[in-house]
Design a protein that fits this description.
The chain is α/β, with parallel strands linked by helices. It is built from 10 helices and 9 strands. It folds into 2 domains: about 1-25 and about 75-120 and about 170-248, 3-Layer(aba) Sandwich (Rossmann fold), CATH 3.40.50; about 35-70 and about 120-160, SIR2/SIRT2 'Small Domain' (2-Layer Sandwich). The structure holds zinc ion. Zinc ion binds next to loops.
Length: about 250
């Protein structure tokens, strides 16, 4: 591994994670060669909020695709675990994740320190009364034949994820900006940094004086701004970085 002198003296760490951190857990990414959208571009239409809300037929297509994509057999990997352990060791680790898989929390990162920028797969929200319920119970109904499962109030049920064409939660975004601006080191892991707000959070952190370190297989638009760019596999690079940070 490269020189990691940038890890010295860091007490406030912000970590941005994208799909790349979960591929070692067996989850496909979205835009890579085996990515969900690459293999079935038509699915993007069903995962677009406007289409989803407009048509029972689209919702039927959505729930069947979603059931097939929904995985209960995945486990956090070495990178998720190293970040959780670093936090337990006393260094303040704030996680901003683009992922909806809940793997940071399952690895032991405290709920209150993980900000899910794109929401969570674990729950669904009623668009009528706002009630939130477990995704599992809805998928049970889909498996039993419900093409367009509804809330008791009659409202449309939608997973608590940010779909295409949907704005991010303003409060979540404001919190993410505060965390990015307050960090001394902004560590971007497994994100192409091409989708908002990931991209602007990197820029904001750097403007506020943080060092930027990028761990990603492919080049990103922010590589030139970074103190270090690491192309090694996430499963080995992130534990090594966490050891360097823990040694302070
Ligand atoms: Zn309802």
């Amino acid at each position: 591994m490269n020189d990691m002198s940038w890890a010295r003296g860091v007490t406030r760490l912000a970590v941005l994670t994208g799909a790349g951190i979960s591929t070692d857990s067996g989850l496909p990414d979205y835009r890579g060669p085996q990515g969900t959208w690459t293999k079935d571009p038509a699915l993007i239409g069903a995962f677009t909020e406007q289409n989803f809300l407009a048509s029972a037929e689209v919702r039927d297509r959505f729930w069947h695709a979603f059931s097939a994509l929904h995985r209960t057999d995945i486990e956090p990997n070495a990178a998720h675990s190293a970040l959780a352990e670093l936090d337990r060791g006393g260094l303040a680790v704030r996680v901003l994740t683009q992922n909806v898989d809940g793997l940071h929390q399952r690895a032991g990162s405290p709920e209150r320190k993980v900000l899910e920028l794109h929401g969570s797969l674990a729950t669904v929200d009623c668009r009528g009364c706002g009630a939130r319920s477990a995704t599992e119970s809805v998928l049970t109904r889909v498996a039993a034949g419900a093409g367009d499962p509804r809330c008791g109030c009659g409202g449309i049920l939608k997973p608590s994820i940010v779909m295409f064409g949907q704005y991010l939660d303003g409060a979540v975004l404001a919190k993410a900006r505060t965390i990015a601006a307050a960090s001394q080191l902004f560590l971007a892991i497994g994100s192409s940094l091409q989708v908002e707000p990931a991209a602007s959070l990197c820029a904001l952190a750097v403007q506020a004086g943080a060092k930027l370190v990028i761990v990603n297989r492919d080049p990103t638009p922010y590589d030139a701004l970074a103190t270090a760019v690491i192309r090694e596999p996430i499963g080995t690079a992130v534990p090594a970085i966490c050891r360097a940070l823990a040694a302070r």
